[in-house]
């Protein structure tokens, strides 16, 4: 009604000018009509959204709320969880198709905002173009400017001016257009922001606007203020000199500035020992361009990091993220402004490799702006490049100066970063090495002979457990220790069958099969995977249903890195008793170890599934000084109490002489520490420790045994081991559940009919290639001499115990004949099915490494 008081004027204005907290604070308005109350609430909730409080909005707006508020909730949902954005957009489209609400102005506005975010400007305009409110017109201006159609933006502005020339949005839209047009129009934009700053409390939006539209008097003021507070004014003066060389201040200051600046700088330098370091922090309100700046027509990320970390420390990255959300084209900028992540490309222009430059520039365009990928990228010029690279290298063999280094590392923070890395590496000819826990025995997750980037998954590590269905979704970057810990936190009687080392990553471990101490009861990790999410070669995120059973089969044991990037696994949790029993019994040759080991061979694969006994022979000092012997450690896990264990052992494996005093009852989670050789009583918190980088050099190899080794041959093996010291072996019994699962059920074929999985390993700490060659020769000789006792034609091997000695293809191609060498050893007949699946999902062989699956038979 004309002339009626507009109760919402201040609230709206605060919102338009970016004073979101003030908008919330002034929203307590009595006696509003129902419509005004809804409008008020929509501004309040939009303010919360602008402040990042999405969840509050989602929680407070319930299903009974009016359409405009439901629309605002959709915006909160869209911005808060990009992984659900498709379903949010689907709901939005359903609403827009409903003729009873499709014309609601707030719904149309939100539709415009969401589609503008999606960079689907035509779709956005479908809903906003008809106008209807000043906000819709203002949004049209923004959309047209994004489309670089300032002519259309101007037309919209004219409509706004005709409707209400003094409206805050009309003024703002005028300033946006002026800034976009540039030249002398910038001064006009400045005056608009100046006017706002005089009328209203200062907000980031006004400040940024003013700073962007710089004029000589602003610069002169900055010079004077800087001098006044004892800070350097050189940058403002040089700007003033360039733009207005005849300004009186330029003339007066030029003679004094050199001396003044030197004095200030010296004073500042001499204070260094007494103030904060790394970074030397600063207060943003005491602006100081000496601490770093970007040229004013661009905002270079690396330069901005210089001053950004000093002013804001870790908060700088969040500011970059917010900037990317609200001003992705960097309209509002100055020498120390916050760069949007998009401008990362500018900072990387210095990289010499053109394919890398193109790759880096491609990344932001293929990932969600709300998760700035810039925060995830490390190039060789990034200060943390080396520490990020080294943290997940597990073997010092791949830490030498000669080891090829990646051109960049993308430490994905969101699945869209994985998608972007795949799409951009593919389109710019770079190889990708995927790393989750970095435990690959041959370093294939972080080393390649051809130009490559590492896609590092360690940040994607969430673990989401649902006890009611006894399942969990675990992301690839989670470690086994984290999975075990999180399960135990929820339940004492659930577990997951996987490996012994807690820092191994779920991404590589599970896709390579994953065996552990519960294999005889529950099979391998892959036998307990019921779904997975993967990014395929086209950058699509697929789950079991959308990837199809062939690909789902292949990634459960065939090695994920040949087929795509595993984002997460849905695992089935298995049941364990509240108390389990563990033991470790050592016996030397003098104590009858050969007889014991011989009996162990006969019984260990036939015992109850609940019992797993690993035998670990290694060289030790003999009882006579200067002699060597073999000490065999028998490690056991029994999924039950010690009494039942002892009774079984006395009957079936009496030679070991297991005593009650050898047995320790504990929770299953504690048994994972026991198997990692941690002292009894160690806190389970150690399971959360992340890798600490490579501690030793090592080389490992594997074998499968399908017939019992006679005693006399055991004696021979011990002699060979003494020659190969410090090499050690682990013999792991199969049988139980493993024999019940068909050898074609997953790519892992070593099931029924197999007795033991062998691992050989040798560790050393001496630097240099001579030592490396020597130790590797020792383990190779030992492996060669074991040939009579292990599988033949092919001599099989375990994929998770990667060993390039058994065959490899050069890393920029995958030759079928070469691949057959290692492929048949790892997968037997399943190799051919893997080749077929590879041909279906990655026919151009983008995902490759020295032991990957080739896409065809040539
Ligand atoms: C100390 C130690 C103990 C071990 N104990 C066991 C054990 O008890 N049982 C067992 O089965 N194995 C064991 N392993 C072997 C281990 O399971 C494998 O090395 C496994 O591949 C490591 O996975 P990762 O993610 O840590 O390694 P990474 O080096 O990150 O990856 C290994 C391989 O998987 C690929 N990959 C990694 N992440 C992904 C992904 N997200 N998508 C697609 N491909 C990916 C890599 O490109 C690489 O080819 C052990 C290894 C070590 C070093």
TrEMBL record:
The keyword Cell cycle does not apply. Transmembrane segments: none annotated. InterPro entries: BBE, FAD-bd_PCMH, FAD-bd_PCMH-like_sf, FAD-bd_PCMH_sub1, FAD-bd_PCMH_sub2, Oxid_FAD_bind_N, TPR-like_helical_dom_sf. It holds the Pfam family Coatomer_E. GO terms for molecular function: FAD binding; oxidoreductase activity. GO terms for biological process: cannabinoid biosynthetic process; protein transport; vesicle-mediated transport. Residues 402-576 form the FAD-binding PCMH-type domain. It is found in: Cytoplasmic vesicle, COPI-coated vesicle membrane; Golgi apparatus membrane. GO terms for cellular component: COPI-coated vesicle membrane; Golgi membrane. Belongs to the oxygen-dependent FAD-linked oxidoreductase family. Belongs to the COPE family. Oligomeric complex that consists of at least the alpha, beta, beta', gamma, delta, epsilon and zeta subunits. The coatomer is a cytosolic protein complex that binds to dilysine motifs and reversibly associates with Golgi non-clathrin-coated vesicles, which further mediate biosynthetic protein transport from the ER, via the Golgi up to the trans Golgi network. The coatomer complex is required for budding from Golgi membranes, and is essential for the retrograde Golgi-to-ER transport of dilysine-tagged proteins. This is FAD-binding PCMH-type domain-containing protein. It comes from Salix viminalis (Common osier).
